[in-house]
Design goal:
36% helix, eleven-stranded mixed beta sheet, globular
């Protein structure tokens, strides 16, 4: 039995049945990381403590109170880990070691997970290509000359390369959906509030959320069951998660297919070809599919405004004091925020409110919305971002990410599911979107589609 090839759910069952030990599983995954080091996904390894933790868990044994018992995980390098270097992808924090865990990281430890190390990100998680001046670029396990996406690119690549069984991510404008699409894994941006934003400067914003990543829908649901619980220290209304283990039948399901999100985005034909085949499969199995999209006018512009305002509030003073410490992408975003007025931010929030109301209306008529996750297939690792998409120039590095950013503005759960490969063998993900609070139903529908397509089982060819 190659434990690295097992899904997290399968591995948890094997560990629970004592078919393997946690030490054996940990050693196998550490060896896998070493053997596939060229992917550059796990950037701060914690091997010694991981093995000590594994031995401790073997002595303790599995229990129902430890749903992640013995599972090797990677933690995104923007999420604090007690005693383990956390750089945020920035040279300003290259040697930073937090004193405590982020809330969801602590929950993962308490549930029995074994943290192997930190997964790579772009600087301060800004952008959908995981490269920074501390660790360099993460490479796509399906083609080492291609990007793994971002900002949770290290997490997605580590999962695809079978280096970890589970990983956490975060998502503002596609940061876990995009890399999941690029690396043929599953990533869920939950409804805002499902995973508490403990310690966040602004817990009221629905823009950013942490979320689970895995190789299968069951794996993502398993991790969400651990991190997706209310927190008394985050007193913000949150949807009740509900039962995440049930498949949703396709027969009679009202599905909207929005290949260009109502004309809001250009998409490369090779991406649409792959997605079109998966959407047709849903129709063949009884789903009622029609081409439709919520009205998304102004979504991209409002997202850009709110993101820039957040970046300037967070790092504006630091950029002014030490401009050489910031890369071009994040510096551009911070400077964009400097020119905003309170009027600009309020108008963007009003637009977001209107978009969330539009989503609520749209999902009274449809059970599910399908769209591209990314407008392109994985691009060359040397690129900063694609300068054109389907022949249309992209003005800045956020432009090509609009398939994800405009969905963020709806305040709803969105999942990237493996949907197939281009003719050149590059992964493509399908974005599956449901109403606010319908996370369990979204996972159920994704589980059904995953079983029909079988794409999650297609592993990259690595040593």
């Amino acid at each position: 039995m190659d434990v690295c090839e097992l899904s997290a759910s399968e591995l948890r069952r094997a560990l629970g049945a004592r078919e393997c030990t946690v030490v054996e599983v940990t050693e196998a995954h550490l060896a896998r990381i070493a053997r596939t080091a060229e992917v550059n996904a796990v950037v701060s390894l914690d091997a010694e403590r991981a093995l000590a933790r594994a031995a401790e868990l073997d002595r303790r044994g599995p229990s129902a109170a430890s749903p992640l018992f013995g599972l090797p995980v990677g933690i995104k390098d923007t999420h604090d880990t007690a005693g383990l270097r956390t750089t945020y992808g920035s040279i300003r924090h290259a040697e930073h070691v937090p004193a405590s865990d982020a809330l969801h990281v602590r929950r993962m430890r308490e549930a029995g997970a074994v943290i192997l190390g930190k997964t790579n990100v772009p600087e301060y998680a800004a952008g959908s290509h995981s490269v920074n001046r501390v660790f360099g670029a993460t490479r796509n396990p399906y083609d080492l000359g291609r990007s793994a996406g971002g900002s949770s690119g290290g997490a997605a690549a580590a999962l695809a390369a079978r280096q970890v069984a589970l990983a956490d991510g975060s998502d503002m404008g596609g940061s876990l959906r995009n890399p999941a699409s690029f690396c043929n894994v599953v990533g869920l941006r939950p409804s805002p509030g499902v995973v508490p934003l403990a310690g966040a400067a602004n817990a009221l914003t629905p823009l950013t959320t942490a979320g689970p990543m895995g190789r299968t829908v069951d794996d993502v649901a398993l991790l969400l069951s651990v991190i997706g619980r209310p927190d008394p220290g985050t007193p913000v209304a949150a949807p009740v998660l509900g039962e995440t283990g049930r498949a949703v039948p396709l027969a009679g399901l009202r599905v909207a297919w929005a290949p260009t999100l109502g004309g809001e985005i250009p998409v490369e034909p090779e991406v649409l070809d792959v997605l079109g085949r998966t959407v047709a499969l849903l129709a063949e199995h009884g789903a009622i599919v029609e081409e439709a999209s919520p009205a998304l006018a102004g979504a991209a512009e409002a997202f850009l405004t709110l993101r820039a305002a957040e970046f300037e509030a967070e790092w504006g003073a630091a950029l002014a004091a030490d401009p050489e410490d910031f890369g071009e992408r994040i510096a551009w975003n911070i400077r964009l925020g400097r020119g905003l007025s309170g009027h600009d931010v309020m108008r963007a929030q009003e637009r977001q409110t209107a978009l969330m109301r539009e989503a609520a209306r749209f999902f009274t008529e449809h059970d599910l919305l399908l769209a591209p996750v990314s407008t392109v297939a994985p691009f060359p690792v040397e690129w900063d971002y694609p300068r054109t998409v389907a022949g249309e120039p992209q003005e800045h590095y956020l432009d090509w990410m609009r398939a994800a950013t405009v969905v963020t503005m709806l305040g709803v759960p969105a999942l990237s599911l493996p949907a197939g490969f281009t003719d050149s063998g590059l992964p493509v993900g399908l974005q599956m979107i449901a109403a606010h609070g319908a996370d369990a139903r979204l996972l159920g529908a994704a589980r059904t589609v995953e079983a029909l397509t079988g794409w999650a089982a297609h592993a990259p060819r690595l040593p």
